[in-house]
Inverse folding.
């Protein structure tokens, strides 16, 4: 699954760079808040390098970073007298989670005046989750790696502040579930093989025309 996701992103990036190699480049940076279902809400920052198809449409490749450290009561695996594991023990676990989504994004502007208007944005790609989990009570810790395909849709308003710079605000919904290979459960750590990163978010950013 991971190789398929990376291959899809590579193919889309190659097609977009070939088709629009002569069009102007657009560099976008943004920052905001995201509220994933299975993780506490936190800050997300990102950047997109895109090419303009025409005055209203651009397509490009984006990368985001979401990072959050928190503690939560979770069901963990424990060893029984028979050597089997169960997930009935709830204990406090410290999480440090970093999500890195890589997406191919399509942006469509809807002008409402000379300097401002609305836009809609859609993207799809692959997300990596690096989850560091520590149980201080049982003195166990592990770094787990997850991955999975997903999509994102959103929209908002933009305002052109200069000849090459545009400010925007966006609300979005992220649909993404990541998973890891099923293996032996780690004693004292959460019994988690899937993490749902779906949720609402918002962000502010600026787009700069490079040429």
């Amino acid at each position: 699954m991971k190789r398929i996701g990376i291959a899809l992103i590579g193919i889309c990036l190659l097609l977009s760079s070939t088709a629009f190699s002569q069009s102007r480049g657009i560099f976008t940076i943004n920052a905001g808040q995201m509220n994933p279902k299975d993780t506490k809400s936190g800050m997300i920052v990102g950047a997109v390098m895109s090419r303009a198809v025409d005055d209203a449409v651009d397509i490009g490749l984006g990368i985001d970073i979401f990072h959050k450290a928190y503690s939560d009561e979770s069901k963990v695996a424990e060893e029984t007298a028979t050597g089997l594991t169960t997930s009935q023990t709830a204990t406090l676990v410290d999480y440090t989670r970093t999500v890195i989504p890589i997406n191919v994004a399509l942006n469509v502007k809807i002008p409402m005046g000379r300097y401002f208007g609305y836009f809609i944005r859609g993207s799809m790609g692959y997300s990596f989750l690096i989850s560091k989990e520590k149980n201080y009570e049982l003195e166990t810790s592990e770094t787990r790696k997850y991955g999975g395909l997903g999509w994102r849709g959103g929209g908002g308003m933009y305002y052109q502040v200069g000849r090459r710079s545009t400010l925007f605000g966006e609300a979005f919904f992220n649909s993404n579930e990541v998973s890891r290979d099923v293996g032996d459960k780690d004693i004292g750590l959460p019994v988690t093989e899937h993490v749902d990163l779906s949720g609402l978010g918002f962000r502010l950013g600026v787009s700069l025309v490079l040429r």
